[in-house]
What does this fold into?
Amino acid sequence: MMNQIVQCVPNISEGRDLKKIEYITEPLKNQDRFKCISVEPDKDYHRSVITLIGDPQAMLVPLLEFFRRTLESIDMNNHKGEHARMGAVDVVPFIPISNVTIEACVDYAKQLGQLVSSSLNIPIFLYAKAAQMPSRINLPEIRKGEFEGMGDKIKDPDWKPDFGPQEMHKTFGVTAIGARIPLIAYNIDLNTTDEKVANSIAKAIRQSNGGFQYIQAGPVFLDQRNHVQVTMNILDFKKNPIYRIFETVRMEAKRYQVEVTGSEIVGLLPKDALLDSVKYYLNVEEIPYDKKMSMSQITQLAVKYLKLRDFDELKMIEANL
Amino acid sequence: MMNQIVQCVPNISEGRDLKKIEYITEPLKNQDRFKCISVEPDKDYHRSVITLIGDPQAMLVPLLEFFRRTLESIDMNNHKGEHARMGAVDVVPFIPISNVTIEACVDYAKQLGQLVSSSLNIPIFLYAKAAQMPSRINLPEIRKGEFEGMGDKIKDPDWKPDFGPQEMHKTFGVTAIGARIPLIAYNIDLNTTDEKVANSIAKAIRQSNGGFQYIQAGPVFLDQRNHVQVTMNILDFKKNPIYRIFETVRMEAKRYQVEVTGSEIVGLLPKDALLDSVKYYLNVEEIPYDKKMSMSQITQLAVKYLKLRDFDELKMIEANL
It folds into this structure.
């Protein structure tokens, strides 16, 4: 059996005290069957994003110890930051990467919820694909009212937690645990400073104006680089592959005599998302597609065809294992 | 004030007796302020589609006489055809073409419904943009049960007609009158006989698989011509313009070493739908766009850039006035 690989991205409500963050995340490091590939504290948000990649089964017990240390270290009554939040561990999504279904990720979310609530008496909401009712699919709906409002909200029968007591933890708050498919943060560079052009192109491709269904997009002017971008989230790269968006933006840009000069992936993406686009261009050029393409070959071809800048192999989730 | 122009497309449940069809449609012909540009009987459907173009205000009284003659000529108890139907006049949509809003078309639909029901005692349902409740937006939901089931259905409080008696007319049945934006039936030719290729491309562009929001598309093999097409409806050409779909199909086809060899408009389309695409290509080529382009210039350029076949100026609704 092939190894199941998920990405798991716990968010904690501490972004300033690096010693505390180190203590809390320590149980997630130096593991055999998964890697902690980044811990990113943000001072303004007063929040840290932790990225784990590997075997979800092996993550469960270390995640429990991580929850225990967070409970010990963070008192939400003293927490103020720019990002909305409702718990010391605020949210934990499981994201399928390879050899694992979204359903299996839902199951791991439930296992973790059960484990944490029964050991630490913390209320848990299941969200996104793990949601047990429609009102819990969107995280902002669960989080509405934040830590300060959660004491009352949780007593409403509609907001009974999926696991744990129907009472907010006085210092920890509550946590959302769930499963979702990977999204890709992707930006396409245009050789113009006219934000209107980027905005028109964003409208052509994004769902909210009738474009592709899994694309959220908008214009942005890059001060340092002195050009505009179409900046976007690709919410489902299997339905709306990167190459299709890249080529559609290129096609629309022609209308304004503007060229696509590059593109960039923000954060990580699954290898398959790039491989699928590389396969498109290889077939266009009538080069037979070789199934055994190495990570570095995929990188080289993706950089060539999608004009990726600031890209290297390690941007592929699987390259970090 | 510019003249309001709508397209109005009454459908009657008679597709075989040409004399009867001539008698029924006669009041719609030789009018000053609108034209009857086609009457298309279909024997299998046992149904005729009539297309009027022009001033909606001037259509109302002739349409009442058309309803009166239909009531006099058609007994639905003797009607059998392949197309679902619920009345002798089955459906009457008003479609905005120029200098008229969809809201104004809704108003004309209501005026006609009021006029017909009060003069002829026929029950009228308002549908599409004119619908007064969500269950009446989609015509098939109203028509469910057809003529044979309508006697019972109409007694259900949920199916009380918007105008007229809450009782089906014994020989005429019921009519749906409404307003909708124009849709374009558009097909793109591929130089392959492989329906799988057309199907994969249809999936890339259509709403139901995550593609463009206003596109319904599927594959079809053309026996006579011996190649496949991506056949589609463009439900909103302002949000999903023709050139964008044409270019996206061309881009996707490259993956299979297939070329787009032509495309065709089925029925009529508003001039603006072509003009918008022509403007795209002119700007791509850095030719300044001339606002005063004639119908024949638009035709010539659309044929060139979109490889339109079997196309002439009269396919544009406005050219028929």
Summary: Chain B has two domains: 5-179, 184-320. The longest helix of chain B spans residues 102-120.
